[in-house]
Design a protein that fits this description.
Layout (H helix, E strand, L loop, with lengths): L7 E6 L4 H11 L10 E6 L5 H14 L4 E7 L11 E4 L11 H22 L5 E4 L4 H10 L9 E3 L2 H15 L7 E2 L2 E3 L7 E3 L4 E4 L2 E4 H4 L2 H8 L1 H7 L1 H9 L5 H16 L7 E6 L12 E9 L2 E4 L7 H4 L1
Parallel strand pairs: 1-2, 1-4, 2-3, 4-5, 5-6
Antiparallel strand pairs: 7-10, 8-9, 10-11, 12-13, 13-14
Helix pairs in contact: 1-10, 3-4, 5-8
């Protein structure tokens, strides 16, 4: 009988919020890090959410997750990151009606500067950091800049939700069996309306065999993928808010889980995923010093750029 793995200490900020509430069971049940990886959960939120956070911790205890060895509740961002192996930064200041983007960036800059410093001072030296809170790419850059002891390659931000949204649209358009029948959708850029969902390397499973999407798409499908498909993915979050009255939560949590699982457990042979990562060393002409979504492969907590991807003229623009 093999020995039990050493526990990983996993911090989730914004733990009492909608995404955090959906994400915690996925991490606690092994969907993110594997069915044999014990975890110590550090659930962090702001002081006004102390009572809600207490309720969340009660629920985690009541779930009796076999993999959860410890639950630590915290409202102190300066001390919560101590010895953390994986930090999932979900909590941020949301953009409110009438707020200028510059004001949003200023407030979040303060939040993520503080978290970056706390990571730098107290987290595990090889801590991996996944930024979810929007604007994710910018928040990731701020946190990484304030944590010089942690390699920039250890930071990443979420564009997997956009990739998953794109897969859902492809399944619906082509009448495929499930999202498992789609792979290698590329998301270039930011998690925002400026992103570009790219199907140039996408494969779909038709009659049990993988085929290039661009070769099986009809003329009408091709028009769809060059137009409505792109805007649907770009504005999907806004549509969810319009319909639901709240922002995406379950789908965001699922995407975070997928992102972490790919990063730690690896991507399959012949498959790449979308991830916002440090741009230094890329071969696509994207300037250095940014967090930008590229196609990557992953293994054992490390990612690698997929080289040689071409895109359409539309994508280049």
């Amino acid at each position: 009988m093999s020995a039990e793995k050493k526990s990983m200490r996993v911090l989730i900020s914004g733990a009492a919020g909608q995404i955090g509430y959906s994400l915690i069971p996925m991490v606690a049940s092994g969907q993110a890090l594997g069915p044999d990886q014990p975890v110590e959960l550090v659930l962090l939120d702001i002081p006004p959410c102390k009572t809600k956070l207490m309720g969340v911790c009660m629920e985690v205890q009541d779930c009796a997750f076999p993999l959860v060895k410890k639950v630590i509740q915290s409202i102190d961002g300066a001390t919560a990151f101590k010895d953390v192996d994986l930090a999932i930064l979900v909590g941020g200041f949301p953009r409110k009606k009438g707020m200028l983007r510059a004001d949003l960036l200023k407030i979040n800059n303060k939040i993520f500067s503080a978290m970056g410093k706390a990571l730098n001072d107290t987290a595990s030296p090889d801590c991996k950091v996944v930024v979810v809170a929007n604007p994710a790419n910018t928040n990731c850059l701020v946190a990484a800049t304030h944590a010089p002891k942690i390699p920039k390659a250890n930071f990443s931000c979420l564009t997997r939700l956009d990739m998953n949204r794109a897969k859902g649209q492809i399944v619906e358009r082509l009448g495929l069996g499930s999202p498992a029948d789609v792979k290698n959708v590329i998301i270039w850029g930011n998690h925002s309306k400026t992103q570009y969902p790219d199907i140039i390397d996408t494969k779909v499973k038709v009659d049990g065999k993988w085929a290039e999407l661009t070769k099986v798409a009809s003329e009408e499908d091709t028009k769809f993928f060059a137009g409505e498909f792109i805007t649907t993915v770009q504005y999907r979050g806004a549509k969810v808010i319009q319909a639901r009255g709240l922002s995406s939560a379950a789908s965001a949590a699922k995407a975070v889980t997928d992102h972490i699982r790919s990063l730690f457990l690896g991507t399959s042979e012949g498959e790449h995923v979308a991830m916002g990562v440090w741009s230094d060393g890329n071969s696509y002409g994207i300037e250095k010093g940014l967090f930008y979504s590229f196609p990557v492969t992953c293994k054992a907590g490390k990612w690698t750029f997929v080289e040689g991807m071409k895109t359409t003229e539309q994508g280049k623009k």
